[in-house]
Design a protein that fits this description.
Blueprint lengths: L2 E2 L1 E3 L2 E3 L4 E6 L2 E10 L3 H20 L1 H18 L1 H12 L3 H24 L3 E4 L5 E9 L2 E5 L7 H12 L3 E5 L5 H12 L8 E3 L4 H10 L5 E5 L2 H14 L2 E5 L4 E5 L5 H13 L9 E7 H16 L19 H16 L3 E4 L3 E2 L7 E2 L2 E6 L4 H4 L6 E7 L2 H9 L3 E2 L1 E5 L3 H10 L4 E4 L15 E2 L2 E2 L9 H4 E9 L1
Parallel strand pairs: 1-5, 8-9, 8-11, 9-10, 11-12, 13-14, 13-21, 14-19, 18-19, 21-22
Antiparallel strand pairs: 2-3, 4-5, 6-7, 7-25, 12-24, 15-18, 16-17, 20-23
Helix pairs in contact: 1-7, 2-4, 3-4, 3-6, 4-5, 9-10
Bound molecules: nicotinamide-adenine-dinucleotide.
């Protein structure tokens, strides 16, 4: 099997250490073999990124806009092929895989436009004959560290703005999804960027990831992943004074009020909790349901869950694919056990399923009779598992929904304008959905949370400029 290499200083670089990437729907299907960057190779990526910064600035903004546009066009042209690769290695359905690739293409196109829209301010000084100019400049070299659950969209929403605002990039993807990361990188390498502006270094978090965190040549780190790793990023970057942004976990609530349209509520809950196998940071894992609609909602959820087709995501009738790997499956099963021991009732699912090939298939699980203080309602599981919590009124629903260490996304299903507005205002989450699933967001507006979910400047949309640029204030006597 040929080995997919790292990309450093405009060259494809081999390595003696290689890892294989397995299809979670069929563990005998090896997707590829990927070179693991050595520490020296990571160091040379930091060096060349630093060295190529000036050349990159001199290329000018039309060049940058055209390069990003070209990358976006190729991603969109190849969305069927790249979507299939993504589904095969990550396990989300083919429709979700193609949707994610399309989103990545749109993100590059969006930032191609943003390159030309970056402006500054020219303001009068409080001192006569002095002018003040406020400009945004690139930060320098950005380390991009990404998780496995959105193998192309998350790298895109970090790499595209980093390049758009004139930075160099060292990209370290998650080891479970190197096929999509490599394919995206290969497209970027053909966009005409000067050597060293974009670098791919595949490897373990504890090795290549840690090197990025600790090297003074990396000026900023954009990280998405778990709370535990996020803490390490924050600590390392704070100590050496590097800029960082963290997008981490969630325990997202979906409130269902008595006045909700039951079909809308069930659709939001099933989509939000179980699509993409529940492996989304914005997944609805806590369904907070008012007493008057509770019985109808729970019955409809049980029927809806039992009608879901779990299987190989490349089959067009599959709605829920496999869990990413054995470690995540073990974690999901452990939490199902914890829920039962805590006194919750497992109403549906939670069983390991056999399919045509060996894979990590789990039937979507729904707990009822749960309280918000249970571990299954406080800790991020990151699988197709949701709990129902019964509440009496809006104030209790709001209070339970905010009673979490996380604050990424929160939703409410209601036909009341008053509840909708109150919830938007008083929810402590960074993103609020009314009559929509907690997961599923636009690509041109800010994304991010509060509390333990996020730290640092917002990602995506024009708000991304906050992280990928630094502000300069210049004074001139005329
Ligand atoms: P993870 O923290 O295990 O890994 C994320 C990345 O960090 C990987 O590339 C990994 O190799 C790297 N890494 C691991 N240890 C490191 C270290 N010591 N130094 C530097 N890098 C290191 O997370 P994961 O399991 O890949 O992803 C799942 C998590 O991501 C979930 O908690 C989920 O909620 C979160 N997530 C958050 C968002 C968001 O935008 N808020 C989006 C998607 C996923």
């Amino acid at each position: 099997m040929s080995v997919f290499k790292n990309y450093i200083d405009g060259q494809w670089i081999d390595s003696s250490e290689v890892i294989e990437n397995i299809n979670p729907s069929d563990t005998k299907d090896v997707i590829g073999a990927y070179a693991q960057a050595t520490n020296e190779q990571a160091q040379s990526a930091f060096d060349c990124a630093k060295r190529s910064f000036d050349e990159w600035q001199n290329k000018g903004i039309q060049f940058r806009a055209d390069a990003l546009d070209k990358i976006g066009s190729e991603i969109l042209e190849r969305k069927a092929e790249l979507g299939e690769l993504l589904s095969r290695e990550e396990g989300k359905t083919l429709a979700e895989g193609i949707g994610e690739v399309t989103r990545a293409g749109h993100i590059f196109k969006f930032y191609a436009g943003e390159v030309l829209r970056l402006n500054g301010d020219l303001v009068p000084s409080v001192r006569p004959q002095v002018e003040v100019e406020i400009t945004r400049e690139p930060v320098g070299t950005v380390g991009v560290i990404t998780p496995w659950n959105f193998p192309i969209a998350i790298p895109a929403w970090k790499i595209a703005p980093a390049l758009a605002y004139g930075n160099c990039v060292v990209f370290k993807p998650a080891s479970q999804v190197l096929g999509s990361a490599w394919a995206l990188s290969e497209i970027i390498t053909r966009a005409g960027l000067p050597n060293g502006v974009f670098n791919l270094v595949m490897g373990a978090g504890s090795n290549v990831g840690a090197a990025i965190l600790n090297d003074n040549r990396v000026d900023a780190v954009s990280f998405t992943g778990s709370v535990t790793t996020g803490g390490k990023v924050a600590q390392a970057c704070t100590i050496r004074g590097a800029k960082f942004q963290l997008e981490m976990g969630g325990k997202n609530p979906l409130v269902v009020m008595d006045d909700a349209d039951i079909d809308v509520a069930v659709n939001c809950a099933i989509n939000g909790a179980f699509f993409s196998t529940g492996q989304r940071c914005t997944a609805s894992s806590r369904l907070i349901v008012q007493a008057g609609i509770y019985d109808r909602f729970v019955e409809a959820m049980k029927n809806g869950i039992e009608a879901l087709t779990v299987g190989n995501p490349l089959n067009t009738d599959t709605q829920i694919g496999p869990v990413i790997d054995q470690a995540q499956l073990d974690k999901d099963l452990e939490y199902i056990d914890i829920g039962i021991k805590e006194g919750a009732t497992l109403l549906a699912g939670g069983e390991v399923l056999k399919r045509e090939a060996d894979g990590f298939f789990l039937s979507p699980a729904l707990f009822v009779d749960t309280t918000n203080d249970m571990r299954i309602n406080q800790e991020e599981i990151f699988g197709p598992i949701a709990s129902v919590i019964k509440v009496n009124d809006f104030e209790e629903a709001l209070s339970v929904s905010n009673d979490t260490q996380f604050g990424l996304s929160a939703g409410i299903c209601t036909t009341s304008l008053k509840y909708a507005h109150q919830f938007k205002r008083r929810s402590q989450a960074g993103m609020v959905m009314v009559n929509l699933p907690t997961a599923g967001v636009d690509y041109h507006v800010p994304f991010g949370g509060t509390k333990g979910s996020s730290l640092g400047a917002r990602e995506q949309g024009s708000y991304a400029a906050e992280f990928y640029t630094k502000v300069k204030t210049s004074y001139i006597l005329s």
